[in-house]
Amino acid sequence: MAGARASIGIPVFNLERTVARAIESVLDQTCGDFELLVSDNASTDGTEAICRDYAARDPRIHYTRQPVALGALENFRFVLEAAGAPSFMWLAADDYVRPRLVQQALAVLEAHGDVVCAAPRVEFVAPDGSRRPAPDGQALLGSVHENLCRFLRDPLDNSRFYGLYRREVLRRVFPRSIYYGFDWTVTAGTLLYGKHARLDEVLLVRETTEPHAYMRLIDDAPGWVARVLPLTRFTRAVLGDLRIPPHPRLLYALFRLNALHHVLYARYRHPRYGRLAYRLALIAKRLGA
To answer: Quick check: 89 and 80 in contact, CB under 8 A?
Structure first.
């Protein structure tokens, strides 16, 4: 939509159960100056009919059905590249936003030129309806080096990936291929261009994801190195693709992350060794405290 202040991209595949909720949550925003880009990754369920119905009723919705299934990363890229507004956010089709998110996030980005992301506080909802806050909602308002080290110390679920960003910054740092930790690469890359503000309210609700879902990206990676050090590709992206200077604190944060995710993957793929590695990691953590 010409002149829209924000673009919101929903990449979707076979989520007829929740996609209407995601779309409705965008349409309920108190700031209506947005365009909504929905990219259907050749769904085989009722997703297409639901999305076409919404698009026919609201001109702010632009629905695209991919003729053949793209990879998940390419579907995320598609809505980003199709966006026309200066600010952009992704919304997963099984998540939803609360009404003031776009209004509050735009106010921050438009008032502070040094901020590249306005990230809401996030809440996770489990299948039984129980809720818990996402742990990584801190603002990153220091120097580039300070912000990177704080983020890389423990990116956790990286819910800030779903904040509202300056669109051109995301385009500069979006990775060429998918790998374990690619979303961390995106977030780390944006910190080279500015700060991350945090909105005070819980304005994004995410469904919990089965813990091993992301581990499968490691299984699909070529070579044995990725299985020993699952964040090898991410580390190469930080130090090589993004050209972040290898300060000792940054290198320590990357080493710590690689060791931690070696243990997590081992617990998933090799439980007996993983349990031993986990106990050794706890001992090392206590000795280093």
So the answer is: no
The first and second tokens of residue 218, run together, are 């490691």
**Nearest residue to 102 (alpha-carbon basis) of 112, 115, 91:** 91
Distance CA 169, CA 196 (A): 12
Helix (H, G, I), strand (E, B) or coil at 201: strand
φ, ψ of residue 184 in degrees (nearest 5): -65, -35
Highest mean pLDDT, choosing among 149-153, 154-158, 165-169, 261-265: 165-169
What is residue 227's predicted lDDT score, i.e. its pLDDT? 72
| CA pair distance 125, 140, nearest whole angstrom | 25
Task: Sort 220 into a burial class: Cβ within 10 Å, 0-12 / 13-18 / 19+.
Answer: exposed
> Where are the extended beta strands (E) located within the chain?
6-12, 34-40, 61-65, 87-90, 96-97, 115-125, 131-133, 164-166, 195-207
Q: Which residues of 167-196 are buried (b: 16+ CB within 10 A; e: fewer)?
A: bebbeebbbeebbbbbbbbbbbbbbbbbbb
Collapsing DSSP to helix, strand or coil, 135 comes out as coil
Contact 144, 185 (CB under 8 A): no
What's the rounded Cα separation, in Å, for the pair 6 and 164? Answer: 8
Residue by residue, DSSP assigns 239-278 as: IIIS-----HHHHHHHHHHHHHHHHHHHHHH-HHHHHHHH
Structure tokens at 164: 């509202």
- By the 10 Å C-beta count (0-12 exposed, 13-18 middle, 19+ buried), 286 is classed as exposed
C-beta atoms surrounding 158 within 10 Å:
16
pLDDT digits (tens, 9 = 90+) for 240-278: 999 998 889 999 899 888 888 877 777 777 666 556 655
The DSSP letter of residue 140 is B
